[in-house]
């Protein structure tokens, strides 16, 4: 009997040990590629064609039927390259799946030997295998033509995840910038060159991978397809002359999204989006994922949606927003909407800010239904009383408010032309800083000239400067975002073109 039990126990022990070994086994997932290479004009098979892959895996040659096989290839996205003398190099994208066989057909064109073709383009940047490349890439290559003919380049760029291919035509220039690449994505690129009479010469295929996370400090709005679209971007340094750096599209051009506000505590962007004619509050991750609608039954409302702002609480738990003469607080998940303030005279609340170090204090801007008769003041929630009046019953438009963390200074914009008209057109908006301690207001000196407006102003994260929109006051003028450091004098730094409503965090 003991022998029987010992035998059974031994079997279970062996199975258990084998099962443990099975769990720790880390096998490579592999698949295969088969294909055929044909003459593009005659459709005849071509033998002895060198077949290679990028990323590199293995190399083989076609047989007399023009066929080839690449066996036991690690699962990945590849470019299959076919090379043989007297033919232009060809390539085809392919995705290798586990235990599958991917099939490709490569059609090669014969070279034209009557005219000397440009030299094979040499890819300079991004370097092959580079990683952590930004989402805005300036592709650089070099080539020459023996007869100094004009060279027509084609930049082919393939997304290794989606296999989407983009093609860009360039004449003579040996660099080209592509914006808004995807995060954490491997790209393959190749440049071809030809002159008016020659065959095409092609570079090798190079690959690179984009950054895995965003660290852009700027957020703003651009117009696309009739809608506002939220972007993030970067700047090399405060004195750089480069603009539109590292652009990343946060929201889709298929919806009207505007007025971005970032909260560093929760790592999200809040923004306004029109839904069925109303403006609703939304939140979204910095990389454009996990979009969440916050408001619903009581939307954001008041005088002109493009003039309305809202704000986060410092800890990111709440959002404060206006609805005509009322100010609400709502949890960032859309729950527990609470009325926080209501104007006594029915005037509209258009803007609200809260200083980081005094969450009991509100900075509010109110106006009438035409956008004028502006009041800008601070309000203490615990005492239900106004504390400081910055502007009261002024002539003309004003707004674009912000407040320092210690609630000592208030930033705002005001049309010094004092115009009041039916279409709320501003003629000479300028930025001001109000010192609450001294009750003084000083205009910020900038490079603006007559006929330009400056608004949508925000303090920099250190409060040592501002970011703002500058635009000519004529209808349809293209806005530009600038920054200005207070310590640098009148030295405006252009950041983003055709952009407005900036946020700097």
TrEMBL record:
Domain of life assignment: Bacteria
All residue ranges annotated as the Fibronectin type-III domain in the record: 117-216
Coiled coil: none
Pfam families: CarbopepD_reg_2
Alphabetized InterPro entries for the sequence: 6-blade_b-propeller_TolB-like, CarboxyPept-like_regulatory, FN3_dom, FN3_sf, Ig-like_fold
CDD domains (UniProt xref): FN3
The protein's name: Carboxypeptidase-like regulatory domain-containing protein
